[in-house]
Input
Amino acid sequence: MEVKKNSLKAWILASRPKTLTGAAVPVMIALALAWTDAEALYGYETFSWTAAILCLLFAFVMQTDANFINDFIDYARGTDVRETRLGPERACTQGWVSIERMKQAIAATTCLACMVGLPLIFFGGLEMILVGILCVLFCFLYTTHLSYMGLGDVLVLVFFGIVPVCCTYYVQLHAVTPEVAVASVACGLVIDALLLVNNFRDRDTDRQAGKRTLAVRIGALATLNLYLAVGVVACALGLVFGVYGHWLAFFLPLGYLMLHIITFLRIKKIWQGRALNACLGETARNIFVYGLLVTLGIVLS
Output
């Protein structure tokens, strides 16, 4: 692929647009729940579209920041080696973005995330400052330490499920219902499928690099079965939507489950190598489908 150094195309590739579905889905689901609950309990005037947009922007910027950090740190550590890398090409490793520019971009996106998130204290209170600090802190800790210890999946569950869903809802209604809490766990499980297939593909090279991901720790077959399980369990947890009268939010995501199973069977057939990158793209698509179907189910119910 011909990419001019530090060009717009280089930065778009470095931001990894496909991963932004993981940032959007938790916010979408939380906003749908907040919007319907605001109407039922208080009237629509309690729902803030300004806060909704800020939550979405914060999620996008933080995801981009995380991608830049991951790109830079893995290059600096020598984890990304062009000859052995199986995943999509990375900006620093390929020379698309210079190291100095990437450092500047990390500083800029981190500051931008703080600027976007700061106004949320006017909607959710001073506790939003702590949430923002934790998001930034673990954004760095994930790539530098925690992913090498096999804790990446826990962080996905927390920071792509529990934190964004619960906090986005809290910003709107200053409470977290049992439905929101369960939905946040389901969302985190669905998004973790992306990390699972990524680590499943890289299990051999990660082992050689000393990166003890969950896939390295539990083995290929267990990781593959876990990939299937997160989608099944997430849909089963969707029963909570029915308990709160949002039955469509339970039934519609069964369409996602079908796609998830098809991707699982494809991963099982391919098993290893660069061909698994297609399954990575399918998983990102499946995550967005899940978010869209749950959101529609909540709103239409």
Summary: The chain has a mean pLDDT of 91.
